[in-house]
Sequence to fold (786 residues):
Amino acid sequence: MTILFDILRRSLVGTCGVLIVIVILGVLYLESTLPSVEMLKDMHLQVPLKVFTNDGKLIAEFGEERRTPIKLNQIPKDLIHAVLATEDRRFFEHPGVDFRGLMRAAVNLLTSSSIKQGGSTITMQVARNFFLTRNKTFIRKLSEILLALKIEKGLSKDEILELYLNQIYFGKRAYGIAAAAEVYYGTTVEKLSLDQIAMLAGLPQAPSNINPLHDPDAAFKRRKHVLERMLSYEFITEEQYRTAVDAPLPTKSHGRTVALEAPYVAEMVRQDLFARYGDAIYALGYEVYTTIDSQMQLAANQAIKRALLEYDQRHGYRKTKIHFKLSRNKTPEQELENWSHDLKEVPIVGNLLPGVVMKIATTHISVLLQDGRYIDIPWAGLSWARPQLKGDRLKGSRVGASPKKPADIVTLGDVIYAEETQNQSWKMAQIPEVGGALVALEPDTGSILALVGGFDYGHSSFNRVTQAERQPGSNFKPFLYAAALNEGFTLASILSDAPVVYTDPVTGVTWRPKNDKNKTYGPTRLRVSLMRSQNTATVRLLQAVGMQKFIEFGQKFGFTKEKLPPYLSVALGAAQFTPLEIASGYCVFANGGNQVTPNFIKTIKDYQGNLVYEAPKPTSTPSIGPEISYLMTSALQDAIQGGTGRRAKSLGRKDLAGKTGTTNDWMDAWYSGYNRDIVVTTWVGFDENRSLKEYGAMAALPMWMYFMEAALKDKPEHSLDPPPGIVSVKIDPNTGLLAREDQESAVYEFFTENNIPTFTAPTAGIWDDIGSGGGSGMGGSIEALF
Fold:
């Protein structure tokens, strides 16, 4: 028997020895497969892409994980205490593994036959979150323990705690304590109250299930548990506990606080960075600073919304397509619960708030807004709503008779949109069907100062500034007139504005360019022709310049040869360009004759502020020369003072120059204008081919004016300085020749020194006898040019 026990003892010892060796070898092998702790020191937290204005206003954030890394010294002591009391009371005492906690987990395993408690310390959670899976297996737990011990040797306790508080998931896409404070309370960590701290500290246990937005009862119990532990460890007083334990829970998720609305710009940035860096942009924490000026962007947002709403309302009210029905024998008040619920499904568009009509009186209507407010819309905010009648594709819609009372416009249960006016009253509105675009550039650099590609990005993400290629109509004429000056014409040259018919030599199709209202003006100075936007004279001017020469000259404004078709109709803007391309072309006039390239990114930094990319200093290329630029600016200033853009005179500035544009059948409306500091192009039109039934001066110019009034407020006038070689000479307004000494009707005109008229205008009546001969400053008969 003794021998048998001895054999058993020896066998047991041998077996245990083998097992110990196997365990040691296994541990050594497992440890050798674990990642280096040095990786944690260089570990990059997934931080979303953020886009800012030039002056640091946030305009967008892109990324699946919301995270804002912060330093440990930025986190309140109460928050650190709450986390320690809840997750790892002995954090600053154990070596990374709390063996007491592991023993409790082991006992729980033996008594319940399942892994319910992990005994994980904060260090072990860091190890798991950064390097391991969440699978509850013994191998994973052993790896977690070994890695935690390694981490404690390589990092300080403060470094580990900082990693934990920046990495841990709090639910609702919030990673890290700073993001959690933003999501649940819309604030920063240093502004959190004790009850808010306790709620956040309790979330990491089960963030998707016990957050207050998913299960308020569970969140309340969990917060109370955190406060009780803080009280038991004397991190807070009894009075603090009582104050915090019954505080209300958050009731809504807070989105990232965007300081300025510029979604079209933000999407341009996202596409640019994606092309450079790929999918990594959503996690690298890049912070992109654009060229956007926040005040100008705000002005652009307001200008386009105002102009498109005004256009829309001029063309009548389209009956709402959403109507909440009244149940039999019920009043709107009795339907309130159902209607309030359904109303939340109606989207907010731009600055328009959805609401349901609850009452119709003789002088107003009462409306329940989506946010629960009741408002009254007075008759003054309703009377615009003449019914819109259908028209054909070309003519567009028509409007019916003016309504007499609110009941002529709406019925109970109608879901309408309301707009708050500047005098804190309300106006009924509707989502504009018409589209619009506005872009503002710095003329010397091409930097985009403001850009809006539509009424509302959520309603339509199509960026009409960069993606909509449309015919610019007369907005394109200044580029041809500049080409004429380059060929020796002057602003005093006489153009023939008489009816004309052209026949295509290949197709035999005839074309009769016409002026507005079929009016013709006869012989007209070039300056006046541009000011009046005369079509027949402009087509003749293209013939005189020559198609090939114009196409070559047009490229000096950044237009590619492919975009300049060799047809006479190009003189009237029959080619297609984006608003950004047109605005870039006008920069050449505004900056003294240099071509620029539009740009919108200044710098890219990582989330720690290190410079990743800095845009090269914008450069310009000498293009048309300062003399032509100055002369064209002078002519385009006249287009405001007495031409098609004269509505802009109400801005009270003499440094503004610009040109309207309207295409055939009023399909597109444009206005491009500038001073020495800013170039702005606005466009209004339907995305599908449909008539606006309005000219550029009525549809697009107001948007430009609203923007310029705000953008140039309190800024001194700044005109283009005349370059050397420009002289001012008195001329006869009818002939463009030098004025007679005693001529009272003489006007001043600008010329280059080598292109001043050489003949003096004859006395009144003689011009008709001598015909078109005489000096135009071109050294020959004008008649020969046509």
In short: Residues 21-30, 113-117, 766-786 have pLDDT under 50 and may be disordered. The chain is about 35% helix and 15% strand.
